[in-house]
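User: My collaborator sent over this chain with a note saying "see what the structure looks like." That's all I know about it. Can you take a look?
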Amino acid sequence: MSCNQYWTVKEIADLLKVSEVIVRRWIKDGELRAIDIGKGWRVGSDDLDAFLEGHATRPAGTSDSPVADPVEFGAGEMKGKKT
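Assistant: Without extra context I'll predict from the sequence alone. Here is the result:
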């Protein structure tokens, strides 16, 4: 057994300032990994960290960004051109 801290749905909702319904939806949709123990869902701190990391925004221009650089595709050449 790991030495992980486990959070309830309510604790996560309060921490992230969202409703418990939203947290349960994340669990149901598989976005947030959780285990069903006794009276409710529990989320390990490692799983919460992974969820938050996966939903973090990326600074512009990083290699992780799925958006291509517009200059790379000639968008810079379009300035000043009339159609």
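A starting point for your reply to your collaborator: DSSP finds three helices and three strands in the chain.
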